Amino acid sequence: MADVQRADAQRNRARILEVALPAFTEDPQVSLNAIAKRAGVGPGTLYRHFPTREALLLAVYQEEIETLGASVERLLDQNPPLDAFRVWVRRLAELVRVKHGLGEALESPAAKAIIDATYEPVTGAIQRLLDAAATTGDIRADIDAGDVLLLLSALWRVPPGPAGLTQADRILDLIVDSLAVSPRRHSTGS
């Protein structure tokens, strides 16, 4: 019986996480009760798994970053490297926007630990995408994934809505263009 209860609890947790990201994306202020209803569980079940809004947001972020990291090879199998990079980056920007909805909760030690733990998987995935694009000759081979992540941070600072998405696409074009094989080199003046 305990195995059935554990399996049921795991399914409930997975279902809550599955509906939470779209719910937070549609309405950053969505109530936890509304998420529980969407997941088909009672509020008590949601609160047993995620005692606070921040705990749920962080769990969604962590799980989605893991899923995103695992998607790199599939994207490269289905798309040319630069297209795979664009698709992957757009998804990353959406997830980080959810993370930014945490506000002050990002200051807690638990939140910082989760965010710090996602840095290497994210830069590793970026590096894999960059390496694939360099292999095809689409970009330079000397690009650092950490530098690219810093550039990408502009994408999750655009305003919400269609105008913000249009601006994010323009910024992404600028970033991709800056990775080109023959960029203009600027001297630092000596």
UniProtKB/TrEMBL annotation:
Q: DNA-binding region at which residues?
A: 31-50
MF terms per GO, please? DNA-binding transcription factor activity; transcription cis-regulatory region binding
**Pfam families in the cross-refs:** TetR_C_43, TetR_N
Q: What is this protein called?
A: TetR/AcrR family transcriptional regulator
- Organism annotation: Mycolicibacterium fluoranthenivorans
Q: What residue stretches are annotated with the HTH tetR-type domain?
A: 10-68
Could you read off the lineage of the organism from its UniProt record? Bacteria, Bacillati, Actinomycetota, Actinomycetes, Mycobacteriales
- What keywords were assigned to this record? DNA-binding, Transcription, Transcription regulation
InterPro entries, sorted: Homeodomain-like_sf, HTH-type_TetR-like_transc_reg, HTH_TetR, Tet_transcr_reg_TetR-rel_C_sf, TetR_SbtR-like_C
